[in-house]
Amino acid sequence: MALKTEELVLNMGPQHPSTHGVLRLLVELDGELVVNVKPIIGYLHRCFEKHCEALSYNQIVPYTDRLDYLASMSNNLSYVMGVEKLMGIQVPERVEYIRVIMAELQRIASHTVALGTYGLDIGAFTPFLFLFRDREKILDIFEATCGARLLYNYIWVGGLSHDIPDEFVPMVKKFIKEFRPTIEEVNELLSFNKIFIERTANIGVLPPDTAINYGITGPSLRGSGIKWDLRKNDPYSIYDRFEFDIPVGEGKVGTVGDSWDRYWVRMLEMEQSLRIIEQAIDNIPDGDVHEMVPKRIKAPKGNVYVRAENPKGELGFFILSDGKNNPFRVKVRPPSFVNLSVLGELSKGYLVADLIAILGSLDIVLGEIDR
Amino acid sequence: MKTPEEVYNILKEKFGEDVILSYDDSQPVEPVISVDPLKIHEVGKFLRDDENLLFDSLMVLSGVDDFNGKKVKDEEGNMKEEGRTLSVYYNLHSMKLNHKVLVKVSTPIEDPKVESVEHVWRTADWHEREAYDMYGIIFLNHHDLRRILMPDDWGERYPLRKDYEDPEYYNGMKVPY
Q1: 20 to 30 Å CA-CA from A256: which of A116, A225, A248, B75?
Q2: B134 Cβ under 8 Å from any chain A Cβ
């Protein structure tokens, strides 16, 4: 006689250590195999887009900090570029250089969290501490520059809130020198650790065409072997002046596009960010960072979509202006929101334990998903 | 690589002026192509598959409340609003040919229906759910049109509409607390 079997619906979250925030997953299980996953989001909804319609353009900048709170600098940059494009502001060279350095430091800081917590999800505790120790140094640099450690409100429309202090350049140089050995250490501890590879290689394979159709961006897309980085393919700011490579997943220990590839792309990207900072740090031109900051921002009627390569992917702002002091509509395209939507497709047929590994490899932040 | 104007001309030739409604380049940054909301899925499929266009990525899909209604008096002398529309903007990009275009559909607020493009670009799935959640735009043939950010029991209230007012109570809790 055949046993009667049925699928089990398991609720994971909203409070769960491996969901990286307030995310709820409805998991349909057949034994230990995942049949379907439905992410349920919205627990952190803070009405960002509604607020924007009541705020003036520069008042929105601190709100953008709170989207992807691990990459506030990059959020500022993307939004500010949108307003500048709409108003036709050309910012001074000095501002552009500082912005690029800040955005790349932020990318490293965000990746250290992504990689460290990914290790935690899988059960490796030590790399997390190593990476967080070095993230602390980046936060110290930011603190010395603008006083804040997490939510900066640093990049303003047309300029920056403060010029960099005298100790900035030596601090950054010292950080670069100290961070390279950490990458080596983490590679030895985690990247090529047999247990880690067993847990992540060939798990959650994302084929390239599925990735494009789902709109996946950032390291998760590059993990699938697609050489696509907005800093190269749709250059903004002054990224076209620097030499750097775009690492892509190659299936080094498994299949192209598996969780390990997504992890590895982030690991390699930190080195590329260091290269960009090294090229920029000695060439910061003189100038006044407040020179082009407008006293009153009044954007002309029109629409603009501007996007930048955030640590997690393409962060876009669609801004509709009706010529008044407040934007008529601001729509955010958060990378994590789009990247999370592929989770159901990605985790079908794997074990529950693999679901955690897959979710971690997508590197989501709920602050920008729920807005 | 095609400019938005060339894309508009290709579309007009293929679908005619009944479907491809207008081309607006009066604004400073990006020109807008307006399309019939009930044909957008066919236009989208063509935009994605035609070998001169290949718009394989939908960067963002945004709902907008145009808030363009005009106050008119009906026969009994009561004021009412007429002609207000909700719009959906599609920012498209081709990763292979590296060109961009902005497509827009508008639909009356009393009966806001737009064909879903979820089957063309899977990324539209959640974006359309968000536009439904925030503006009440109904996406026809969407496989799973539920609220996404607001609670499921928020009722027929759409927070990003310009005339939205907070409910007084939500599940027995006073809302402006």
Answers
A1: A116
A2: yes
